[in-house]
Design a protein that fits this description.
The structure is a homodimer. In chain A, the strands form three sheets. A seven-stranded mixed β-sheet of chain A has the order 8-10-7-11-9-12-13. The first copy, chain A, has a four-stranded mixed β-sheet with strand order 3-6-4-5. In chain A, strands 1-2 form a two-stranded antiparallel ribbon. The first copy, chain A, is built from ten helices and 13 strands. With about 325 residues, chain A is α+β, with helices and mostly antiparallel strands. The two termini of chain A are about 30 Å apart. The first copy, chain A, folds into two domains: about 140 residues, PurM-like, N-terminal domain (60s Ribosomal Protein L30, Chain: A), CATH 3.30.1330; about 160 residues, Alpha-Beta Complex (Phosphoribosyl-aminoimidazole Synthetase, Chain A, domain 2). The interface between A and B is large, with 76 and 76 residues.
Chain lengths: ~325, ~325
């Protein structure tokens, strides 16, 4: 039952890893974790209508279901290795499966990830991916390492995915497809690039790290809660893409960045005096980086204007529901 | 968002494993795979209305979602270690979550499994569990090792879960709850005991192994296909529980065993001369074992009557759909 889709992806990612002793097709996969390395594991589910719009292209869904998990591995500084995929589909749709497999395999190959197991079931459309990676013993980028005095950095730009979603919802699907800024924003929503190279570059350099999936306020809040510190964000410093600025005013850009989510950028803290080294390493990793604030004593995450005054912020990031 | 349920289970399984360097609450878990061991990984999804009846007790669902994965690890001869849980729920139902956590944690504790990650999302009810275990390098129970001449064995009894389902469907839920045979059958449907100890006992003893989740014909068929052999099943030898025999005639018992599924027993092959050793080791592991046939040259799986004549069998095991 589960072999067709899983097999379709397996053949597209085969040969990428000699450490797969036994992959798809047995009761479980057998994998070699290299000596001196720890296993890093995470899982994430995407449900139609909750995490993606009905009508999302299957290839984008395949890509993104893996990307959000590789982003979690990146936020630990891990190197991705293997993935398991559970896809639930309403009907047996060969065309859907083929395109889903294309998108999943394209990102998997780009990061040397082998699909080693999975399950295909009938039901309302949803995807759960488990990603497995490795990390040298003694190295990691935990949430709990932020220290008062650290500078706060973020990779790439914030708010693009929510900007794309806003445009899609206001104009409907099929519109804006020839408008280059919208196409660029939509790519950020549908095919986020997990910051794996940045995570590797930050090993033994950042004190704390998280990926921005629920909005900067919520995710930086997780870092602060885990580390027992507070944070001040310099609102003037937040990095926005030219495309986002072209489509929205400053207030909207800031709202998307603070509480939008779906960015899959890394937010990390490090001693301020290491800024030059951080910029050099991340430029080397092909990744823009911006200093956006500092870690302070206390427990609150505050946004400051150009004069250093706190400004009102939306309460929290993107929450589906809390059981 | 994901912390409540996952945290509820984590506290119920904490302290079971010193090899969890960093568990629930960061971007990903950090785990120590012991030197000399391989990682074993599998994933399985259960969707309401497809894999379990609407109205299934949340505690049973929590138990079973882990059990079906531990059964896959058992079929490889692996020792379970860690699990990741993705639960999708229509509404935030604290009572459901609490009971689900109870059932999941009860089985996890029994097998020394720590919950190390997860995701809770809103949507139609389904559960995906990823189970991770370990296995000494060089040992495993693959599907592909069956040899012509091997005897075929099965643990426990077959058909109980489908028998329970048949009774439930014919009589409706809430009936038969005080009828001891039905209670026993229902326990086999709702809280299957993964054959972990049996899998460990069979290391370096069985040539091939699979867990019976889709019915004996389908699963033994997978072993034969992977091994390039055929099989003959002695229909007189199939092991049935006293409860199943009390509720159904012989023909129904056989149908359930051959094509029912949901048994989560191990079916394995080994040289016939090792039968006494197998029986001794599995008795020691608290597990009944029955010799039910032999591996032959060819490609077909045939069921034989008392006179050695092939009898007609239903075509295949339980299939949801094939995308």
């Amino acid at each position: 039952m589960e072999f067709d889709l899983i097999e379709t992806i397996r053949v597209r990612t085969q040969g990428v890893r000699p450490d797969v002793v036994l992959g798809v097709g047995d009761d479980a996969a057998l994998l070699d974790v290299p000596a001196g390395q720890r296993l890093v594991a995470c899982t994430d589910t995407m449900v139609e209508g909750v995490h993606f719009l009905p009508g999302t292209a299957p290839g984008d869904l395949g890509w993104k279901s893996l990307a959000v998990n590789l982003s979690d591995l990146a936020a630990m500084g891990a190197e991705p290795a293997w993935a398991l995929l559970a896809l639930t589909l309403p009907t047996a749709d060969a065309r859907f499966v083929e395109r889903f497999a294309d998108g999943f395999a394209e990102l998997a190959r780009a990061h040397g990830v082998a699909l080693v197991g999975g399950d295909t079931t009938q039901g309302p459309l949803s995807v759960t991916v488990t990603a497995l990676g490795t990390l040298p013993i003694g190295e990691s980028l935990p949430r709990a390492g932020a220290c008062a005095g650290d500078a706060i950095f973020v990779t790439g730009t914030l708010g693009d995915a929510v900007g794309a979603l806003r445009l899609l919802r206001s104009r409907g699907p099929g519109t804006g497809e020839r408008n280059p800024p919208e196409v660029a924003l939509r790519a950020r929503l549908n095919r986020p690039e997990p910051r794996v190279a940045a995570g590797l570059a930050l090993r033994a350099l950042a004190n704390a790290c998280i990926d921005v999936s629920d909005g900067l306020l919520a995710d930086l809040g997780h870092v602060c809660a885990a580390s027992g510190v507070g944070a001040e964000i310099d609102m003037e410093a937040l990095p926005f893409s030219a495309e986002l600025r072209a489509a929205f005013d400053e207030a909207a850009c800031r709202e998307f960045a603070l509480s939008g989510g779906d960015d899959y950028e890394l937010c990390f803290t490090a001693p301020a005096q290491r800024q030059a080294e951080i910029e050099a390493r991340l430029t080397n990793a092909g990744c823009r980086v911006t200093r956006i604030g500092c870690i302070v004593a206390g427990t609150s995450v505050r946004a400051l204007d150009a004069n250093g005054n706190a400004i009102a912020t939306p309460h929290a990031g993107w929450e589906h529901f809390t059981p």
